[in-house]
Amino acid sequence: MSAIPTRLRRSSRDRVLVTPEGIALPVTVASRGARAGALMLDLVLIFLLILGSTMALFSIAGGASAFMREIESDTAAGHVLQFIFIVWIVVLFLFRNAYFLFFELGPRGATPGKRMVGIRIAARDGGRLSAEMVIARNLLRDVELFLPLVFLASAGVDSGAAWLAATGWFLIFMLFPMFNRDGLRAGDIIAGSWVLERPRRKLEAAMTVARGAEPAVAAAQRKYHFEEAELSVYGEYELQALERVLRDKRHQSVESVYQTIAAKIGRNDGWNDERRFLEAYYTQLRARLEAGMRMGRRKADKFSDEG
After folding, report:
1. Which residues contact 300 (CB under 8 A, 6 or more apart)?
2. Which keywords fit this entry according to its UniProt record (predicted)?
3. DSSP string of the chain, one letter each residue
4. Which range, of 16-25, 71-80, 181-190, averages the lowest pLDDT?
């Protein structure tokens, strides 16, 4: 990962991410405000889910208790209420912890709050966002946010030193993103992740080849044909990266990407004709992905299953 040269930089949050395939991919780091807004939205959603689950369990508990009393079994009623209370505790735990894990481990790498503000999690090394990364950054969220809030609530202002310690703990982690250029949480640093803005363009609009190149692309289509198995290797993320390489027209990048893709799909017939080979692969891969989208199937990247 490196910085974009000053003359090309549109924003202080623009970066260049080098993927394992050697592709230099421009990305934009999510703003601290967007991350805070996403967290607030997620916490509101979690609260609403907990509230709805609590009301549902109270309703079930009331009905079960009334039924047990009708059959004059107070002991059984007590056992039912204890069981429902245990279920409620488990629900609270799952909503607080599994909520973030479930959505961030998905193909979009984003919770509903992050999706609403247009950001997602990614690996800082350009590789796959692994389960270990997501688990690590979310375990740290307990240390950063939930534990100090619990201590603050239990200590109270009158407890003096304990309250000040809990407040300091909370502020250190909450202000941590303000003191690094990428707005990383402590959890991001440990997990090797960061939060990026999602491209706001739709797939069909985003993935286009320059109009002037259309005759050359048509000629390449007649020369190079790729089988379904060769096209199924990559997804939308790699397609957009390939488009950027073709637009930049850097011979070294084109040759490097050609070697990567050719080795991946087991082809070598594009030697000394790398650009036309990649243009043909780009066009056929794009057509395949768009056809899948019309059928409700999407493949986010090479690591994702189609669905």
Report:
1. 107, 108, 235, 236, 237
2. Membrane, Transmembrane, Transmembrane helix
3. -EEPPGGG-SSTTEEEEE-TT--EEEEEBPPHHHHHHHHHHHHHHHHHHHHHHHHHHHHHHHHHHHHHHHTT-HHHHHHHHHHHHHHHHHHHHIIIIIHHHHHHTSTT---HHHHHHTEEEEETTSS---HHHHHHHHHHHIIIIIHHHHHHHHH-GGGTHHHHHHHHHHHHHHHGGGGSTT---HHHHHHTEEEEEPP-S-HHHH----GGGHHHHHHHHHH----HHHHTT--HHHHHHHHHHHHHT-HHHHHHHHHHHHHHHT--TTTT-HHHHHHHHHHHHHHHHHHHHHTT----STTSPP-
4. 71-80
Q: Are 184 and 139 in contact (CB under 8 A)?
A: no
Give 32-48 pLDDT, tens digit per residue: 999 999 999 999 999 99
- 26 has which bridge partners? 16
Q: What are residue 27's DSSP bridge partners? A: 15
- The span from the first CA to the last CA of the chain, in angstroms, equals 30
How far apart, in whole angstroms, are the C-alpha atoms of residue 126 and residue 237? 11
Please tell me the distance from the alpha carbon of residue 294 to that of residue 304, in angstroms, as a whole number: 18
Please give the single-letter amino acid code of residue 164: L
pLDDT digits (tens, 9 = 90+) for 224-233: 889 998 998 8
Q: Where are the domains of the chain?
A: 6-197, 214-294
Q: Which of the pair, 72 or 40, is modelled with greater confidence?
A: 40
Q: How many residues does the chain have?
A: 307
Task: Please report, for residues 1, 57, 113, 142, 257, the alpha-carbon distance to residue 27 in angstroms, rounded to integers and kept in the order given.
Answer: 10, 45, 20, 28, 18
The rounded distance, in Å, linking the Cα atoms of 243 and 236 is: 11
Virtual torsion, Cα 73, 77, 78, 81, nearest 10 deg: 180
